[in-house]
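Our collaborator T.R. sent over the components below with a one-line note: 'Predict the complex.' Nothing else. No constraints on interfaces, no templates requested, no preferences about which chain binds where. So this is a plain run: every listed entity goes in together, and whatever single assembly comes back becomes the starting point for the next discussion.
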Amino acid sequence: MGTPELTDEYDRFFDELSRMPDINSCIEAICSEFNIQFVTYHLAFHEGKAIDSPYVRTNYPAEWVSQYLTNDYVEIDPVAQNGFKRALPCLWSDLDWTAERSIEFKNDARKHGIGTSGYLIPVTDRKRRRAIVNFASPAKESAWAKKINTIDVLLLECAEILHRKAIVDLYGREDEKPALTPREIQCLNWVAQGKDASSIGLILGISEHTVRDYCKSAKHKLGCASLYQAIHIATMQRLIDPDSLD
Amino acid sequence: MGTPELTDEYDRFFDELSRMPDINSCIEAICSEFNIQFVTYHLAFHEGKAIDSPYVRTNYPAEWVSQYLTNDYVEIDPVAQNGFKRALPCLWSDLDWTAERSIEFKNDARKHGIGTSGYLIPVTDRKRRRAIVNFASPAKESAWAKKINTIDVLLLECAEILHRKAIVDLYGREDEKPALTPREIQCLNWVAQGKDASSIGLILGISEHTVRDYCKSAKHKLGCASLYQAIHIATMQRLIDPDSLD
DNA sequence: ACTCACCCCCCCAAATTTAGGGGGTCAGAG
DNA sequence: CTCTGACCCCCTAAATTTGGGGGGGTGAGT
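Returned assembly:
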C-alpha cells in the first residue's frame, strides 16, 4: 500500500478532477498526471432501461472499443467478468487468463495496441451499483506492479471520482434514493427465488416474522404498493442477484 | 409493397444466408446482394445477464460504433428509440428528427460517413425479444424510398434470418422455452406495478378470478415456485414493460 | 371433426401476506 | 448522557394468495 499521506499531496489534483465537466476530460487528466496510457470507466447497467447500453467512457482506440462491443468480449474478458464480482482492486496479471477464449481475447487486445499491464478497480456504491475502472499501460509487468504499488491509493480516489461523475451524469445531482439494508436485500433476494417467509427464516437463521418485517420495510423504502412491485423494482435495480445468495 | 412472388426468386439467396456461420457474413452478403452500404442488427438486451451489453453486429466503421457507444447515442438516436417501440418498418426519414439532440446526432453520423437514407425494421419474436435491423445508404432519399418500395419484403426476410441467427448465437439451438400469452403478460405487468387482482380485473375488464388464473398459468409456464419469483423472472426477461401497459 | 392454444368465469380450504401493534440493541450526535 | 436512527426481533387479526377443482367459449390448423 502506498502511504496515506500521499493523498494529501494530490488534493489539488483531485479537486480539479472533481470540477471537470465530463468524464473524458478526467480520463485525459489522469493519464497525463500518472503517465498512464488508457483509462476506462465502465458502469455495468442502466437501472431498468428498456435498451441495454453500458455506460462506458474510455480513451481506448475506437477500433478496439468497436471490436470489444461487436464481439461480446465483455462475456469473455476476465477483467470485466471478475471486476463486476470481486470487491478489491488487483493487477490484470493476478486474474486467470488460462482459458482458451481469454488467450484469444488477450491477443486481439495486443493487436489493437492494448498492453497487457493493467490495474482493475471495482467500485460498488451504497445503492449497489457496480462499475469497474481500468488503468492500462504498455509498461513491463514488473515495472507496472511497482508503480501501482506506490499510486494505488491515488487511483482508488480517481476511480471514486469517476464513479460519482458518472452517477451525476446518468441520474442527475448525486444520490438520494433510499438504500436497503443488507438484511432487506437478502430477504428480497430469497423471495425472488421463490422461497416463502418460513424457509427464508430457516435459511437466514431468523424468525419468519422478521423476514416479513424486512420485506415490509424494503417495500416501504422502495415506495411500492405490493411486495410484487418491490421485487420488480429491486430486480430492475439489480439489487437481486442469485449469485450472491445467503 | 413489393410483389410477394419476389420472395420466391430469392429463395436460393435466403437459403445461403441461413446457412452462413455468422451474422457478419450475412451482413456482407446482404450488402452486396442489394447494394446497400451498411447493415446493422441490434438486439436490445441479454436476458438477465449481470452485465449490460447489447448484442450488436454491424459493418459501420469502427469509429462510428465507438462514438455511438461512448456517447450513449442509443438514448437520443430516433432510430433506436422508435425502433424498439414501434412494430412496423419505416424509412428513417419518416421518424421525428426535429429534436435538437437528434440533429446533433445526425450531423455526427454524417461526419462519420453514414448517409441519412435508411430503412428500419423492428423485430419482435414470440418470446417478446425485440431487435432492430437497419439498412443504410448514401443514396438520395427519393431514390432510396423507391428502392425500398421494391425490396421491402426481401429485407424483412433478411431481418428475420438475422434475428434467428442472433438467438441461436446467444442461446444455442433455436427456441424452446414457453412463451406467455398476451393476457398473462398483461397481468404480470400490472401485478409488477403494484396492483391487486381486483384492480387489474377492473382495468382489463375481466373478472378478478380470471386475473388470478392468468397469474397462475404464467407462474407455471415460467416454472416458478411463487408469483414473486415469476415477477422476478419476467422482469429479467423484459416481459414487463411499464410503457406498454393496458 | 378434431385437437390445441388461447380466452373467460367460478368455488373452496389451506397457506401466506398485510398492516397494525409490541419489543430490543448499539453507535454517533448533540 | 440522553436522544435519534438504523438495525434487529416478535405477535395477531384481517385480507389475500395459492393450488386444487369445475365450467364455458373461440379460432387456427390438421
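Summary for T.R.: Chain A has a mean pLDDT of 88.
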